[in-house]
Design goal:
InterPro entries: DUF2851. This is DUF2851 family protein. The chain folds into 3 domains: 106 residues, no CATH class; 110 residues, no CATH class; 182 residues, no CATH class. By secondary structure, it is an alpha+beta fold. Helix 4 crosses helix 13, helix 8 crosses helix 9 and helix 8 packs across helix 10. Strands 1, 2, 3, 4, 5, 6 and 7 form a 7-stranded mixed β-sheet that branches. A two-stranded antiparallel ribbon has the order 8-9. The two termini are 20 Å apart. A hairpin with a 2-residue loop joins strand 4 and strand 5. Helix content is 48%, strand content 11%. The mean pLDDT is 90.
Length: 421
């Protein structure tokens, strides 16, 4: 038995009635109270009737009565005003306190605990892998939007903290986040380091010719130390001027990895594409924030490609076997929209009271679902994943519920615990 399971039983009143205190008085639970995840009793503001007396206050729950002393509650003033102590097993003759005590042993339906225990013991892709298909589609689909909003909330908290450190510079925040996504997955951290290696205002001030933007970003990424050809030398010369002007300090390019990457995903190609984006779009932030549909967002990014030098190169000084333009792919554009544009637009809407959050969800619903290994595994066990909102929600489910076996907090897990026989 675990306290988490007892919290679940108490919160949803899944025990068998009637309940009796250890002294034999009947207990009627009107309201189990609000779950408290901070210091103090487990449930706050509960409403009970013990015998003929109504009580309003806090409830503490333990597996065993002796846990009261084990957890140090006997010397904690937070526990002085309890109205009920709920335990699974009353294992001591001496009462550790004056409040009524209820034992739930023999009051919990065996099937609930067996289902919960079975889920907790699973070591598969997710605990309910073999039972997932038995949960109705309404339960799953209604949970998905809540999961996706939870994912956006988590990301917006991180972005808001970064925005404060940037003194409210939304354009700088957008640049950092877009750069991060350009590097996904292998070079995401390196691209974020690159974006944070200089004040964003420096990038805004330089001449918006593509070669100037490339010189700035390739120089900051540490790619211009030893020029190998004429174009490389031209970028290096330009960067030396910019470095002196803005007192810049470049990264070492060993942060950027090539291993296990297809050449079109090499960091050199991505840096050139990022340079092109910020050279071409003078009012990029305004255009992104003003876009109301997926088509409008696609129009911003679909015209972005690496500079012509990269038609015949994947790294500096090394000619490729083919001559091809390196356009930003639709898959990368979707990643930018999902992982940079939508979270920042969501945070912006929250901070300024905009009512376009449903429009954001509609944009995400228009995007095709990701096709990574986690999504493939969910599909194999019967998940109906129609769009990017679904796939993002399932990624959230896996990360924050399945991996830590929080089945009691999951609507799908709840359904299985309640109804699977």
């Amino acid at each position: 038995m675990t306290e988490d399971f007892l919290y679940y039983i108490w919160q949803f009143k899944l025990f068998d009635n009637p309940l009796f205190t250890w002294d034999g008085e009947e207990v009627f639970v009107e309201k189990p109270g609000l779950r408290n995840v901070n210091a103090g009793p487990d449930f706050l503001n509960a409403s009970l009737k013990v015998g003929n007396i109504s009580w309003h206050g806090n409830v503490e729950i333990h597996v065993k009565t002796s846990d009261w002393h084990l957890h140090g509650h006997d010397h904690d003033p937070n526990y002085e005003n309890l109205i009920l102590h709920v335990v699974y097993h009353h294992d001591t003759d001496a009462m550790p306190h004056d409040c009524p005590l209820v034992e739930l042993n023999q009051k919990i339906p065996l099937s609930l605990f067996e289902n919960y225990k079975n889920l907790q013991q699973k070591t598969q892709f997710i605990p309910c892998e073999n039972l997932f298909h038995r949960v109705d589609e309404f339960t799953k689909s209604s949970f998905l939007e809540a999961l996706y909003i939870q994912r956006l909330e988590e990301r917006s908290r991180v972005l808001e903290q970064r925005l404060e450190r940037l003194n409210g510079d939304w354009k700088a925040l957008m640049f950092e986040r877009i750069a991060y996504v350009f590097g996904l997955k292998v070079n995401a951290d390196a691209f974020e380091m690159l974006a944070k290696s200089f004040p964003f205002k420096n990038l805004q001030e330089i001449n918006r010719k593509a070669e100037n933007m490339e010189a700035f970003l390739f120089g900051q990424a540490g790619y211009l130390y030893e020029p190998t050809d004429e174009y490389h030398q031209m970028l290096s010369n330009e960067y030396q001027f910019l470095k002196h002007k803005y007192n810049l300090k470049a990264l070492e390019n060993h942060h950027f990895k090539l291993l296990r990457l297809r050449p079109p995903n090499f960091p050199t190609i991505r840096i050139s594409q990022l340079s092109s984006l910020y050279a071409d779009e003078v009012n990029l932030f305004s255009k992104i924030m003003g876009a109301k549909s997926l088509n409008q967002l696609n129009d911003i990014f679909q015209k972005i490609k690496a500079s012509s030098y990269w038609n015949t190169h994947y790294t500096f000084g090394n000619l490729a076997k083919t001559n091809t333009e390196k356009w930003l792919t639709q898959q990368r554009i979707q990643l930018i929209i999902l992982n940079a544009v939508v979270p920042i637009k969501y945070l912006y809407a929250k901070k300024y009271g905009a009512d376009n959050i449903e429009d954001l969800l509609d944009i995400v619903r228009e995007i095709k679902p990701e096709n990574n290994s986690i999504i493939k595994s969910f599909k194999q066990i019967g998940a109906n994943i129609k769009d990017a909102l679904d796939s993002q929600a399932y990624l959230e489910l896996k990360k924050h519920y399945c991996d830590s076996k929080k089945c009691l907090n999951c609507r799908i897990g709840n359904k299985i615990i309640h109804h699977v026989r």
